[in-house]
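Solute carrier family 8 member 3
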Amino acid sequence: EREVTMKKPNGETSTTTIRVWNDTVSNLTLMALGSSAPEILLSLIEVCGHGFVAGELGPSTIVGSAAFNMFIIIAICVDVIPEGEVRRVKHLRVFFVTAAWSIFAYIWLYMILAVFSPGVVQVWEGLLTLFFFPVCVVLAWVADRRLLFYKYMHKKYRTDKHRAIMIETEAEHPKGIEMD
């Protein structure tokens, strides 16, 4: 967050706080990098020390840490909720995007290590894996900002008599669904 002082046309000044980072983007980038930095550095040191060949420690540490985060940390978060209280995921769309990418990451890891080039990570596989992270962040940001789905949700479309032109009409909001 950052404080910005604005001057109104009448000469009066007002100070307001604005967010510099989108919460979803900062959680996926800064927090992930900060929490995974020890495993990444350990893996890099091992690779550099073994003539750019991965040993047992680096990849095992990264996969083990990811599995620990996926299962144990989530279990602890669920378990510490006091009896009789309920919590909910604040941004369900973002949760589904990141959950899908987490599952995809494990499938992709299996594919590159066991199917495409068993036991060896080729350069194109590494670059494609690196490219997946910004794609994940952008898709999570799109889900957070609701840029794709909600734009078309409450509109009805019909075609003209010749089925040549699509005509957009406003639809009524379904009863029982709240839009925020």
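thats it. The chain has one domain: 23-153. The first strand starts at residue 2 and ends at 7. bye
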